[in-house]
């Protein structure tokens, strides 16, 4: 990987994520990717673990933000924690149908 990023999506005081924090992280990821000429971005569903945000809300934020990348040829690959969630999101989030995003059903294992 040419670039590795990190996004802290859980607020210190509340121990939760907010949709605003996810929107900000997604926008900064998009802007940085365009500026640096990055062609592929892989990321998890930020804020859905310890931050307790619903995965569907985060995916919708990602899709709405990353759809702005049209014409920049950037692939955003989002990893889901289960096959069931992957299947459900792939068919139920309308903005994914026209998106430059790809869902990837990989279970992230924590050691």
Write the layout of secondary structure elements.
Layout: H1 19-36, E1 40-44, H2 55-66, E2 75-80, H3 83-92, E3 101-105
Parallel strand pairs: 1-2, 2-3
Which value, in Å, is the CA radius of gyration?
13 Å
Overall 3D form: globular
Query: How many strands in all?
Result: 3
Largest sheet: 3 strands, parallel
Report low-confidence residues grouped into runs of 5 or more. 106-111
Class by alpha and beta content: alpha/beta
Helical amount: 25-40%
Describe the overall structure.
With 111 residues, the protein is α/β, with parallel strands linked by helices. 36% of the residues lie in helices and 14% in strands. It is built from 3 helices and 3 strands, in the order αβαβαβ. The chain has helices at residues 19-36, 55-66, 83-92, and strands at 40-44, 75-80, 101-105. Strands 1-2-3 form a 3-stranded parallel sheet, covered by helices on one side. Helix 2 (55-66) links the parallel strand 1 and strand 2. The model is unreliable at 106-111 (pLDDT under 50).
Summarize the structure.
This protein has helices at 19-36, 55-66, 83-92, and strands at 40-44, 75-80, 101-105. The chain is of the alpha/beta class and 111 residues long.
Key phrases:
alpha/beta, three-stranded parallel β-sheet, 3 helices, 36% helix, 14% strand
């Amino acid at each position: 990987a040419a670039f590795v990023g990190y996004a802290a999506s859980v607020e210190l005081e509340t121990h939760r994520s907010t949709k605003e924090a996810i929107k900000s992280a997604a926008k900064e990821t998009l802007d940085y990717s365009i500026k640096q000429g990055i062609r592929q971005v892989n990321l998890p569903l930020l804020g859905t673990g310890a931050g307790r945000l619903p995965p569907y809300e985060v995916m919708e934020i990602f899709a709405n933000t990353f759809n702005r990348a049209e014409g920049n040829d950037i692939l955003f690959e989002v990893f889901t924690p289960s096959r069931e969630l992957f299947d459900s999101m792939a068919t139920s989030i309308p903005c994914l149908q026209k998106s430059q995003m790809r869902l990837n059903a990989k279970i992230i294992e924590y050691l």
